[in-house]
Batch of 4 targets.
Target 1
Amino acid sequence: MARDHFRLKTSIWANDDFRKLPGAAQRMYLVLGSQPTLTWAGVLDWWPNRLAKLAADTDEDAVYGAVSTLIDARFVVFDTETSEVLLRTFIRHDNVLIRRNMGKACVDAIGRVTSLELVEAIVVELARLQLDEPGLAGFVGIEEKNPELWRRVMAKQAVIHSRGD
């Protein structure tokens, strides 16, 4: 099932970290999140020239600047070697794991990520989400579809829990 929307919660405007971002970075977050190529894992290929073409007053330098701000604020993770970008909390905020089969779709999307750094960031976010909302049906789908990934998530969860993160 292809994505056809980006779930933007109104509570984003109450998020102090998001409100501290300049308008260009906030807009870029919305641009990235609403790209049709964004996967169920929250990853998309990095095409700054394409993103620059989405607004008449935006060039590639502006795209790089806005994304750099998002990286510094930890809203996105970027791998320069693989040209992939991760919206770090996409799975959580888009309610991807609300259904069992969406957990399986998420596993498929993770399997298409080239960047080991981004996969690790996704594992961390899945572990944090599992600590916060252990009853999400999508976790069953993840465990069924990819037991090894599930073991990694649970191992990371134990580390996070022990550190109190």
Target 2
Amino acid sequence: MTIQINKLKKLPNKFYQREVLKVARELLGKIFIRVYNGKKLAGIIVEVEAYDGSIDRAAHSFGGMTKRTEVMFAEGGLLYVYFTYGVHFCSNVVTGNKGEGTAVLLRGIEPIRNIDVMSINRFNKNNLTEKEKRNLTSGPAKITQAFNVGKEENGTDLTKNKIYILDYENISDSDIVITKRIGITRSVELPWRFYIKDNPYVSKK
């Protein structure tokens, strides 16, 4: 399958400046673009998690704004990148209105363009095993490694030309799995994880 990404339109600010669960669900099937060394690294978003600091103890924004979470409290349409476990970066799409502190974590992406560049970024080689191919972008830290997203990308405007998301496929409800979030210890009961059923790049079924 070849997707003509140059014919697709960027998601506008109004897409992001809505309720976090709605944005999270509708991000599935959209195409994440990172321009890196003049090349467009691209992949279909297949797994996300929503976070809302007003009621969600797992959200970084719970308890109010800090220097670390300042971007998360901006208007929707920015990329919030944070460092975790002293090792990995994770990237999130900020949603809602200014001061709300809501965002969507990108957990799984199906790579579709310039996969060779992503392979070098992740594994420092091109000839990947089948296992390595499946693991290329099937997790939040794997995504940032493959797309070379780090602290310098924190706060990136998703309507500009460095990192952005293209409007692509609308996924039907029957193809979406809704579960509790994973890898957290607080507010674990919230069913705020969404992923495309049977996609091999979902981090965990």
Target 3
Amino acid sequence: MATSKNAKLQFESGQTLVDYAAMSDSGDHKIHTISGGDVWSGRSGFEASVRPNGIVTGRNLITTHATDDTINYAGFTAYSEGTLYTVVAGNDTITRPSGDVAKINSITMTDAGAIAIVAGTDSDDTSFSTTRDAKGGPPYIPADSVELGQVRVTTQAAAAIASSEIFQVVGTHTERFDFPVWEENNIGDGDSAETADQKNAYIEFASELDPIHTGDAYKQVYISYNTPVFADVSKALDFVPCEKSHSVSSTQYYDGVAGAVSSSLGQGAFTAIMSDNITDALVTAKDEILTFKFFSDRNKTPYILTQGTLGLGRTFPAADQNQVSATITSESASAEFAS
């Protein structure tokens, strides 16, 4: 008979900081992972900090200027390589085409927090292209530069830039850090993952990133996170992972019944014998979001990860051991790992 007599339960007793580093694109340009970051802490003050390159504060930064071929840019903040740069307002000059043809200039912030204008290739006529690096199209910008907007001109003669020649649509001409939005999964989906890159911790953007950087490359995404440090819950029993349950409801119609299935996520739980039930490490971590690691056999590899808010119900019996009945309230189901 299979039992969990030899099981082991661990809880997140500490954290190890990993500073900002570039994430890896899984290839679908939505899911991103970080080497070595299999699990990210969710504890308050230790959460993962995801910083895609892009503008953080400020919108419609580019405006007209009275001087020929010159644009103003407003003050703003932006991420590059995980660093938040603060750029003060100023102005700069675009490059005109060599003839009366279309040309696009991209206004950018470099990876050092400076403004740089990158000129596109002249078109053969006054037609613009939306293809990066094409004639009359927007230029590629360096890997960790951030695009603020574009200026489109069709004449070589010096003139003041008109507002109609400035383009700043987010996701097309302007690169914001929070577009597209993303979701974070701190423990991954384990052996139930749809792809290999979703087995461990990952982020997933709502839509694909655009290849606007040199070499048809995609926006870089940086992350700083904390790896949980695990300690044993020395006298634990009756662990229950967070799992979905399913129920059915039905609607009767003439000569039949139509069913509908709904799902709900249950709380995880375990019981542990404490010392004084006041200063125990587990007690001091109550009401925090913690990661738990459960081995059904401490001498074997398979384990379950659960991350959620630890709730405690303590009892102080006169003739028995001090105990806690713990609950783990999670936003996602526990994940199983064979290795």
Target 4
Amino acid sequence: MSGFFSKTHEAYPEPVKPEQDYSYCTGSIDNVSFSGLMQFEKCPYSLFLDKVSRIPRVSGPAADRGSQIHDLLEQYVQGEISELKWSIMKQGLFHKELIDKFRIDYSNGLVITELKYAITKTLKPVDWDDKDMWHRGAIDLTLFETTKKIRATIFDYKTGQMNKSVVHRSQLMLYALMLFNMYPDLQEIQASPLYLDHKAKPFYTTFMRKDFDTFWPRWEARFNQVTDATVFPARPNAFNCKWCQHRKAQPDINQVEPACSFGVT
């Protein structure tokens, strides 16, 4: 598990461990997304506060901008708006030609935007909010080579800094596996993040149907660690706590004290 993450956090000094007993953080989580898995593997207690204590998420300006751009791109590709407000992009129109191609391919029935999937523990596809849903996610853009759906390319829109390529590629691997699960005739998938704020061209990783049996057991084991957990220990350090909302009181949800008393500032 630890090998999945960058070792950047090792450069930070470990804080003095608090004396509190974490064992009170008990509960259960029935389903997990990719982002939830990432959160759990960094700090189980942070996910506990989200999913068991159900503390509302507070988004910042960067997240709000990312959501706005995702929505605009979906509307533009689907032809719901005739012109895209490129002024929202910070640096330039780096990927306009590719996105215009998405729009054409969508009109020809080859593109699916915001492709949502949900599965049970036995990989059975179910509705997004099904009571047996175990894992779910959404693929920003799926482009099929032909209507026969034998080959596909998937893209995940990314805004902000381009500094998580390993995590982003891992996320796309998971999406590719889920696409194979949804489309039995699909044999090959190319996958790339699309960094909207950067000139970097898409860099593709290719997955074949046979890769499902190779890679899925590891993903299954990692998801099971989340949904089998009954204790959720905090793992405070400067790396884990830096972007966690629970280390500070959130006035937007009427907090006067941080939800987490273990956070490192």
